[in-house]
Prior knowledge:
The chain is mainly β and 367 residues long. It has helices spanning 13-25, 118-124, 322-326, 356-366; strands spanning 3-5, 10-11, 31-39, 49-56, 64-72, 79-84, 97-103, 106-114, 171-182, 189-198, 202-215, 221-227, 239-243, 254-267, 271-281, 287-300.
Amino acid sequence: xxxxxxxxxxxxxxxxxxxxxxxxxxxxxxxxxxxxxxxxxxxxxxxxxxxxxxxxxxxxxxxxxxxxxxxxxxxxxxxxxxxxxxxxxxxxxxxxxxxxxxxxxxxxxxxxxxxxxxxxxxxxxxxxxxxxxxxxxxxxxxxxxxxxxxxxxxxxxxxxxxxxxxxxxxxxxxxxxxxxxxxxxxxxxxxxxxxxxxxxxxxxxxxxxxxxxxxxxxxxxxxxxxxxxxxxxxxxxxxxxxxxxxxxxxxxxxxxxxxxxxxxxxxxxxxxxxxxxxxxxxxxxxxxxxxxxxxxxxxxxxxxxxxxxxxxxxxxxxxxxxxxxxxxxxxxxxxxxxxxxxxxxxxxxxxxxxxxxxxxxxxxxxx
Length: 367
């Protein structure tokens, strides 16, 4: 019984897309071919049949550029779909190609011309490197426009992506303490601390929020500060003061204040950064407390404007204390005025013209 495939066999859109994309994005370079298998009187053939497909550069010559042997399994109407490939992008360079079909060594004529749909034809006229960033409107290509798994490491040129092309994720650390007694006479108390690991150089925004209470016959004040090193003295421009100086009140009275401290640091490299919240009280009368303190540290990978650190100008990070240089958390903001940094169990060293007693008296006077 002679076998034939009826005319009107179509090439599906999947085939067109595969040929169009194969050279640029290395999509699956195959094509789908669909047809109907009948006998010589038009009845459908439903049994498995071996079919050979040839791709020719000519409608009549015997030379072919590719061939595929497939076993097709028709449905009850003789209709089958078969996938041919892998195909060579070099063969589909714009010149005409014909598809020959053989069953049992018999060629079914005529050969079918392989054509493209209008959109695929338009894509084929786009020259290599002719679409650049100037042709693409910002934010016009979104995630849903890119098929899953089409962009892999092999599609990205070495060293073409830098840290500025990839937005680092921000990171957050938080801690909480219920209450802390603030001792008088300018003894610094470490209220709380946290550690945040930053992946790369960037900015660290730290904030603490708490309620302060002060009682006694003289209010005085509480000074609160945030730093990345332990200190026995504060930067006067980087602290918050709550209270009422030398105001005399009834011993039964307690004053309450809302205390918020915010500070920004520049971190020069990825590391674990320690952040400390400290406070002191200069009046030796009554008591002072910080309640319900919540401290947050937010890592921000880069700035989108000017970032200032107190009255200083951003520049190269400065560490002036030898111990701080070996402490992973000892990072000061770039451009801050260099000031001696101390570990808590050390005493500030007085200068030749200033005794330690003079220095302590000056700190108390500032409060």
